[in-house]
Specification:
Layout (H helix, E strand, L loop, with lengths): L13 E5 L2 E5 L13 E4 L8 E11 L11 E5 L5 E4 L8 E8 L8 E2 L7 E2 L4 E3 L17 E4 L4 E13 L8 E7 L5 E5 L10 E7 L6 E2 L5 E4 L5 E2 L3 E7 L6 E13 L22 E5 L1
Parallel strand pairs: 2-21, 15-17
Antiparallel strand pairs: 1-2, 3-6, 4-5, 4-7, 6-10, 7-8, 7-9, 11-19, 12-15, 12-18, 12-20, 13-14, 13-19, 16-17, 20-21
């Protein structure tokens, strides 16, 4: 049993399996959310119009997992040439970077200001000089989608996903869904249970490449078969829920994935499914979250 220094971020233990295979244990949950962001504004240097802007931040860990959004903070700008500076969140656990979410002037809907897969490194402030975009994703929360992004220089195949959905007492039917998305947000694959989940209910969603589905077992748990699909860098796993109500919580409990990293030997993306063409990928991580 060997510990590998290059996997120190979140490493519990690595087990050498041979032929470049490693088993890596990493936390199932994304980082806890950071505190509300520290904000400052300057009257010159940008093109942001006068108004009140609401902002939040989220952590991103070394495996591309994003925390729920933080509590919000507001800043008031003047004139038409302002900038907004977001102070970097404090270091925390396995977090290595952060996303910034900002409303339009006077608005309440927050959208991500960086491109997906390109968060700002912890320790560096984020400066918004142009009017905030309104096309980015909204911050995640217990009732919002959980998203995991495939890191740069890697390919990933999900083997097992287990998530727990606890619905509040608010009346309504909820439909949990697993989606695999490309870097542009296009849906590559999705699956949802045939029956909705009612209020005041706790169910476990189990998805694996060895299962068939979607179906519901005798205990009311949702069973879904995962596709044998390799995702490239910036592609995403997303857990979403239609009909979410206040107080609902839908979060992953365990994620197992195989990951090809672009090491010294690289990988042949076109031949990733062909053992004859690419017999020993360099290297392959087997992640148990």
């Amino acid at each position: 049993m060997t510990d590998y220094g290059r996997h120190t971020a979140g490493l519990i233990r690595s087990i050498e399996l041979g032929l470049g295979w490693l088993r890596r244990l990493i936390p199932a949950q994304p980082p806890a959310p950071p505190a509300a962001p520290g904000l400052a504004t300057a009257a010159v240097g940008g093109t942001i119009a006068a108004g009140t802007y609401t902002l939040a931040v989220s952590y991103v860990d070394a495996d591309g997992r994003e925390s729920f959004g933080s509590a919000t903070a507001q800043i008031v700008t003047a004139g038409a040439t302002s900038t907004i500076t977001v102070t970097t969140p404090a270091p925390s656990g396995r977090a290595v970077a952060y996303y910034v979410y900002c409303s339009q002037a006077g608005g309440a809907v927050l959208t991500r200001q960086q491109a997906v897969g390109s968060p700002t490194a912890l320790g560096a402030n984020f400066v918004l000089t142009a009017p905030p975009t309104n096309t980015g994703a909204n911050p995640s929360g217990p009732s919002a989608p959980f998203t995991e992004t495939v890191p740069g220089g890697t390919m990933r195949r999900y083997v097992t996903i287990s998530a727990t959905l606890t619905t509040s007492a608010v009346a309504g039917n909820r439909i949990p869904q697993i989606r695999l998305l490309d870097g542009d947000g296009n849906v590559l694959w999705s699956a949802a249970p045939a029956a909705a989940v009612a209020a005041s209910t706790t169910v476990t969603l189990r998805a694996a490449t060895t299962l068939l589905g979607p179906s519901v077992d005798a205990a009311g748990n949702v069973i879904i078969g995962l596709p044998d699909l390799f995702l490239s860098a910036s592609d995403r796993l997303s857990l979403t829920m239609t009909g979410a109500q206040a107080g609902d919580n839908f979060a992953p409990a365990m994620i197992v994935s195989e990951e090809y990293t672009d090491g010294a030997g690289g990988y042949e993306q076109g031949n990733i499914n062909s053992p004859q063409a690419n017999p020993v990928p360099e290297p392959l991580d087997f992640r148990v979250s």
